[in-house]
C-alpha cells in the first residue's frame, strides 16, 4: 500500500511539473455550432503569451474510425514546453463520416486556429500541421487538395506539413492491392466501395498544388505500404521541385512512431523544431 501511495505521489508530481509554466484550454468548439465532441480541440500554450510563437496543429490517427485528442495531452505539453503553441483536435469518424467530412472538419479546426490562436500567443502566419497514421493522410489531403479550404472560404494557411508515419497517401493503389479483410472493409467505409473515387481521397494526386515544405518521418519497421508510399511521396515532391525531406527512424514500428514522443527528450522533437525554425 505504501509503495502504491509513493508511486501515485511521484506520478502526480511529475504531471504537475510537466505543466509548470503551461496553460491548457480544453474542449473549444471550433465549428461554432451545437457542441459535438468530434468538433472540439484543446490548446496547450506557454503562460507567457507576450511574444508570438509558432503553432503546431496535431491530427490524430486511428484508421479513420477511432482516436481522440485527450490521448495526446503529452504531445501538446511537450511542444508547449518548447515554446510552441499546440492544438490537438478531434474530427468526425467512420462509419458515420466519410474522408471528405473528416477533412472538412480538420480544415475548419485550422480556420479556427488562424482566426483565434493569437489570443494564446500563437502566430497565425506560422501554422504547422502534423498528423500520425490516418491523421497524416488528412493533414496531407487538406494541404494538397484545395477543395476543403475553398469550401470554407479561406486560403490555405498551412506553413508546412509534418507526417509521422502517415498512412493513405495513395488509397487507390492500397485498396487495389491490399488483401481484402475486415480492415480494408473498414477503410472502404471511409473511402467508399467505388474504386473510381479512391483517387479523389488520395493526397498523392494533388501534388501540383503543393506550395509549402514537407517533413516526412517513417519508422524503419513500420508497415510496408507506409514505407513505400512515403518514399514515393517524397521523391515525387522533389521531382516536382517542391521542398521535402524524409527521415527513417531506426527500430520503430507504426505505433512506436508516435508513442515514443511521450518523452520530452525524444529526438523527434529536435528534428521537428529544427524544421519549423528553418521555415522562416
Walkthrough of the structure:
This protein has 280 residues and is α/β, with parallel strands linked by helices. It has a single domain (22-278), classed as Rossmann fold (3-Layer(aba) Sandwich), CATH 3.40.50.1820. It is built from 10 helices and 8 strands. It has an 8-stranded mixed sheet, sandwiched between helices. It is globular, with a radius of gyration of 18 Å.
Could you give the distance between the termini?
Answer: 53 Å
Order of helical and strand elements: HEEEHEHEHHEHHEHEHH
How many individual domains?
1
At the first level of CATH, what is the class? Answer: Alpha Beta
Number of strands: 8
Topology diagram in text:
Elements lengths: L1 H17 L3 E8 L10 E7 L6 E7 L13 H9 L3 E5 L9 H18 L5 E11 L1 H11 L2 H5 L6 E7 L6 H7 L4 H10 L22 E6 L4 H16 L4 E6 L6 H4 L7 H12 L2
Parallel strand pairs: 3-4, 3-5, 5-6, 6-7, 7-8
Antiparallel strand pairs: 1-2, 2-4
Task: Produce a short descriptive summary.
This protein is of the alpha/beta class and 280 residues long. It contains ten helices and eight strands.
Which terms summarize this structure?
280 residues; alpha/beta; Rossmann fold; globular
